[in-house]
Design a protein that fits this description.
alpha/beta; two-stranded parallel sheet; binds D-galactaro-1,5-lactone
Length: 277
């Protein structure tokens, strides 16, 4: 059984992935936050992506790395710089020094978020980041390309939409990524024998997708879910648009805001609305 390191494993995507991949791989989980409850086949090693020595230590001896660690939304530059840019460098460099060939990187729909919603893009589309966060994901894609070409690493770039049990609003009907489709795509990234450097979109088989995901299909990806089955319910709850920059572009509010709340973050006590997860 392969041993897979998941960085940022305490986060939302990491938590879904752990559940879905249980029993298929031995999972080494790493995060700056503690993970106390471990399932069978899981081990935990605390690590800060911003510290090169931590990344060297946590990645030793694994077969592949799924790098989810870092800041998950738009936020302050010093935070993005340390966790997403320096952090991304640290994990690629640790992989190279430890002789780990295969690395999967959670890039994002926000690497291309300034494409308009009436445009269809694919894995060859030029990046159009919508935020400092999006820029950090483009940096990760460029770094992965360098490590593939220069050091022969096998690099799998997933431009992830929104991982959630259900799509949460109109924009997410286009970019929803169900947990089981996430697991399928990640397994392709880990096990496909022919990966050199690939970019794929991390979305389910959504009718309203803005992406031509034929590169993922070529590698065997067959999504089982489609956000359309939730469309009536989601659209009925949708509030009229007020931010036209957000409304026109694929990245939504990342295109207009200086900080974006994490849609998966727990709602604080006393605040209106329900916890999303
Ligand atoms: C992302 O890249 C974020 O990590 C996630 O929290 C969501 O905001 C998602 O994009 C999205 O666009 O919904």
């Amino acid at each position: 059984m392969k041993t897979i390191l998941i960085t940022g494993a305490a986060g939302d995507v990491g938590t879904h992935l752990r559940n879905e991949l249980a029993g298929r791989y031995a999972l080494r989980l790493s995060d700056i936050r503690p993970i106390k409850k471990l399932a069978q086949g899981e081990t935990f090693m605390r690590g800060d992506v911003g510290r090169a020595s931590d990344m060297l230590r946590v990645s030793k001896g694994v077969d592949a790395i799924v790098h989810l660690g870092g800041f998950a939304v738009e936020g302050p530059w010093d935070m993005i710089l340390r966790t997403n840019i320096v952090g991304c460098y640290n994990i690629f460099e640790a992989a190279r020094l430890n002789g780990i060939k295969r690395i999967l990187f959670a890039t994002s729909n926000h690497a291309t978020g300034f494409y308009r919603r009436d445009q269809k893009i694919d894995h060859r589309s030029y990046p159009k980041p919508d935020s400092r966060y999006g820029v950090s994901k483009v940096f990760g894609e460029a770094l992965g390309s360098l490590y593939a070409d220069k050091y022969g690493m096998q690099v799998f770039m997933m431009r992830i939409g929104n991982v959630n049990p259900k799509p949460i609003d109109k924009r997410r009907l286009s970019i929803w990524f169900s947990p089981r489709d996430l697991a399928q795509l990640v397994s392709i990234g880990i096990d496909h024998p022919g990966i050199k450097f690939e970019i794929v979109y991390g979305i389910s088989g959504n009718t309203r997708a803005w992406y031509d995901n034929s590169n993922a299909a070529r590698l065997g990806y067959r999504p089982q879910d489609n956000a359309e089955m939730y469309a009536a319910e989601v659209l009925a709850a949708e509030k009229p648009a007020t931010d036209m920059v957000a409304e026109l572009h694929q990245g939504g509010v990342f295109c207009s805001a200086e900080a974006v709340p994490n849609p998966a973050a727990p709602v604080k006590a006393g605040k209106k609305g329900k916890k999303k997860k």
